[in-house]
Design goal:
2 helices; 5-stranded mixed β-sheet; mainly beta; disordered N terminus; Jelly Rolls; 2 domains; about 325 residues; binds 2-acetamido-2-deoxy-beta-D-glucopyranose; elongated
Length: about 325
């Protein structure tokens, strides 16, 4: 792979990662403004609306519940708001006070996931809905507003608004998700336990930073009843064994386009530790539905001196760190 597309994507992901932090900073900074608008709001509408409120920018990152209002000051052709919640939350989005001209080409579309540089998270392989059902298009919806609920902790709104003073308000609410499957981590360090109980599905935990991953527990192929699970063969690759965990590295967000760094298909505890020097590091659990599968892991950001020196080396291990 030539260095250029990687480098571009790297920039994009880096800026998104930076915005993750920045977004929180800005929101904190504007919290006092938010309170002022809340006060006047309360006088107008009564006290049921005790939610954070701030303007929405054409390119934005939202990490809190609240009302976010966009008003075009000039034609805005390509805007996007990235929304992220905690791993065990999903996101509900609702549009209100919409004044856009659909017939003139304006649009507002909500997406169940993130799209970065044309790549989707979760990938089509890991999401339970077909791609077209993951979009909610305000202009083609029939109801008075448009609502959407994400399947994981990330969602997105794309919009194009051409006439000045047109706009909309987006209500973001985070809801508890008792069975998180796909997750985008908000932070470069933490820990997580992913469980897939008797479901034929795949779940990816994505960390858009270069990290060291340490698997602390892996339990695969636990039989449905309490009978002993058959002695498992250790495969050179795991795809023949039905249920397995793969560690992936890459510079985009679509897990189906990332490089396998390691495959694990036997139960272990506290063994695997791996540095992945890519912009995106993923733990992906593949489940046949026959078993309760469970993987726990910890991760931390790689220091600058731990990053691979040359990214152009060989394809296979370009982001594996010795
Ligand atoms: C899970 O992933 C595997 C390998 O990537 C794929 O063969 C399988 O079809 C996927 N399962 C589902 C339910 O999408």
């Amino acid at each position: 792979m030539p260095a250029t597309p990687c480098a571009q994507l790297l920039l994009c992901l880096m800026s998104v990662s930076a915005r993750l932090g920045l977004g929180r900073y800005v929101e904190d900074n504007e919290a006092s403004d938010g309170l002022y608008s809340l006060l006047s709001l309360e006088q107008k509408r009564g006290s049921e609306d005790l939610l954070f409120r701030r303007p929405l920018r054409c390119l934005d990152m939202l990490a809190t519940d609240g009302y976010f209002t966009f008003v075009a000051s000039r034609p805005q052709l390509a805007c996007a708001a990235f929304i992220i919640a905690e791993p065990s939350e999903v996101i509900s989005l609702e549009l209100s006070d919409v004044s856009i001209d659909c017939s003139a080409g304006d649009f507002i579309k909500m997406f169940d996931g993130w799209v970065l540089k044309g790549e989707k998270f979760p990938s089509s392989q890991d999401h339970q809905l077909p791609v077209h059902q993951r979009y909610t298009d305000y202009c083609s919806s029939t109801g008075p507003g448009a609502k959407s609920r994400s399947s994981q902790n990330v969602a997105m709104v794309f919009f194009r608004i051409q006439s000045p003073d047109s706009g909309f308000t987006l209500l973001v609410k985070k809801l508890h998700n008792p069975f998180p499957c796909n997750v985008m981590s908000q932070s470069p360090e933490g820990s997580f336990t992913m469980v897939i109980p008797h479901q034929r599905r795949n779940c990816s935990f994505s960390i858009i930073y270069p990290v060291e991953l340490r698997l602390t527990e892996l339990s695969l192929g636990q039989a449905k009843s309490n009978e002993l699970s058959p002695q498992r063969q250790v495969w050179s690759g795991c795809s023949g064994s039905g249920d397995y965990v793969e560690l992936l590295g890459g510079n985009g967000v679509d897990t189906s386009k990332m490089f396998p760094v390691a495959d694990l298909c036997f139960s272990l505890s506290g063994l695997a530790q791996m540095k992945i020097g890519c912009d995106n590091s993923v733990v992906r659990l593949v489940s046949s539905g026959n078993y309760i599968n469970r993987v726990s892991f910890q991760y931390r950001l790689l220091e600058h001196n731990e990053l691979p020196r040359s990214r152009e080396n060989s394809l296979d291990n370009f982001c594996t760190v010795e």
